Amino acid sequence: MSAKTSFPISFSLANTHVYVHQEVIAAFQQARQKKFENERFGVIIGSKNKDDECYWIEHLTKPHPGDQSSFTSFTLEDPAHQAIVNQKFIESEGHLAYLGTWHTHPEQFPEPSSVDRRDWRSCLARNGDRQLFFCIVGTGEFRFFKMHGGRFNRMRMTHHF
Question: Per its UniProt record, what InterPro entries does this chain match (predicted)?
């Protein structure tokens, strides 16, 4: 299977490109928040090309029993998320790593809330050694964001069909 079919959607901002695996896309589509359901969420796991700013989102985690969530909030508390990141890192001989978080919003075209931006800044502070990405899965589309120029900016989506 080619990269075009395995990673049918990418997001770009400045010179940074993020390619999303079809299984991650399917998981986002399945996770869309329906009316009165709690938020869904997890971490994003992927790799980076050594010579450029191309990232490959290949896996994600989903909510676990030790996590907390409501219609408008979530807290990643279950250690299973970190255990999965560690397992993927070991299995890939260091190529796969934590690259950010994802969560749902009950709106068609999701935008980050002030709580999202505060949480994302905290994630960046704890992971100063890498670029992080943040995905919000809306009821109509999902969007990737990254820190650029001191603020969080939405990345432009491109289809590769």
Answer: JAB_dom_prok
